[in-house]
Write a structure and sequence with these properties.
143 residues, mainly beta
Amino acid sequence: MLDDVTDPDTNTAVVVLDRDLIEGADTVRAVVEEVYLVATALAPEIISANRGLKQVKFTVSDIYSTERYLTDLATNTFVWVGPTGRAYYPVTRCAVTVRSAYVPQTPSTMWLETACDVAPLEGGTSFKVLVKVRRFGTPEEGP
């Protein structure tokens, strides 16, 4: 299913849900690709993209590794935020594929992909969110 999602342009994310999601007066349609814009002013380990209130956000513990990893509750996190601002978190640990990672102090691209079952913390029906995101930047080492 993730293979059917369009590859994102630089500093964008392509997000698709596997079922309709109704939040308040808003509906996110299933299998409709939406393009989110990546926030480039954040720390390099935070890959965040927005479309109105909707957001997809990854926090990556090792920005220089191309190893596939699993989300957890501490260092490798993932969240999708719906159209009313409600946050949806992984139901189980999700695999994140790193198609490319940053190169230290070099203009480079972090490209992440996941197909993750998510639900709100207060409970409810889970659904799958499919994400491909590319962030271009020059990661800099701390002092």
